[in-house]
Predict the structure.
Amino acid sequence: MKWRHGFLDLVEPVHPVATRARLFIAAIAVLALVVRLVPMLSAITWTDLGGDSSYYIQHADGLRAGCGYASLVGSHCAPPDAFRPPGYPLFLALAHGIPAVFVIQSVLQALVCWLLGEFVASWWGASAGVITAALLATDVPSILLASMVMTEALFQSLIALAILLEMRLLIRPPERWKPGLALLIGFFFAVGAIVRSNGALFALVGA
């Protein structure tokens, strides 16, 4: 991969990004990851969580227990319902535990922080890229959401990645990457739509 242009050579930049600035943006992204992983030091278990989190967890338990898209209450499967989309409970079922959920959500947020910083630096200069990455890394709501069993952190990361890739496809599409890139964009938008129902709106825009 070529590094001289910034944003992993995914766009035709206005401002070449110096290696020093690029490393600084990467360091900020690593810091964003570390800050979001701090809650893993606490001994949180599934049973400590209530509210909407308990709903998602019960559905995840139901998926693992063979209940279909229905909650597992105690040792019994509740009647199936479609009150919320199935994406997040499926994510929890595959993650198998709070530490894995927190790690995946935190890594996705750090990845968005890095790519967005690179993209902004390529178009508006290194200072703008560093400031963008720093603002996202220290954004208190996103830090808190990364350590919650809630849809927001996963949904926001998926949609942000899809939009960044879509901009790549629209600005300077590489001929050999077009089909794969389009499929990846569609995948992120589609998963976002089954994580939160309002993700369908983004999928329509992306189309």
